[in-house]
Fold this protein.
Amino acid sequence: MEFEEFTAGENDSGRRLDRVLRIMLRERALDKGINIFSALRKRLVLVNGKKAEASQKVCPGDSIKIASFLLKESKDPAERKDFTPKEQKGGCKSLNFSLDSAILFKNDSIMVINKPYGLNVQPSFSSETSLAQIVAKECKEGLSLSFTPAPLHRLDRFTTGALVFSLSIQGAQIFSQMIKDGLVKKTYLGIVQGRMEGSFEWTDGIEESNSPSATSFHTVRVVKSNAPIAVTRAFPLEYGSFGGKEVTLVRFEIPTGRKHQIRAQSAFHGFPLFGDRAYGGTKASGHEFFLHAIQVEFPEKNDLSIPQKILAPLPEDFLNFLNSALINWKGQLII
């Protein structure tokens, strides 16, 4: 009988064998009906060359051999040899995306990348490849059997900028706790319609919309009920015009992290993102909207050895819009 051999990593340490196997087989096998206990009993899975119990704890460096026939072709379309991703809306093809060139910071626990326009963070029902799939495929090898690198927060498909991924269980836990404690600060740049005079702090309830928008996008809405609170701070930086309409370059800070909160609150308070049709913005030729996570800040002293500030350079199309809209912006005004 042929076996495939895998080596346990640090992130597998102390986990029950059956839980490690469940994750491995779920990621690699088409057949969801595999009985792990039966496979162990029939010696279709061996640990360090020996029969093992489901409750056995895995140690770093353990050799785990699995009968080859249990490891069928991956159900993940991004790993199929015949898989060709569709072209992403906005001209971004996942095949042309280089993870290495997008990395802003990386250590054993955390990776921060500069997310491109038009690429989903999480897998969707379409056959388009997501950032989560790309990172998992390129970063997991040799890292762990039961732990998959994953995004620790989300950016919309058409939002660009700093996006944090976990590369270890410890990294995921510590970062998530920092988010919960309000110790991670995110700063965005956006282009809104109209001339925003003065700074604002918007505090609103936000909930999922019960009906699709006029453009069929999935949206949220601002309400005055007992919905989760979103807080967005807006600071106008420079002014310009595009297609005969006034626009403002705005710095946004979000102490909370609700879905679409910048987009929804800006629109509700009279300043929809330029091009954001889902929230009442004017259609922008060749681009949905301009919103970029320009900077993420961490506590000066943190357990993950992350720099206090990580800056994500603006993408070329955002810079081109600033130039075409005659916005006399200054980089030092961003942060």
Observations:
- The two ends are 61 Å apart (CA to CA).
- The longest helix spans residues 17-28.
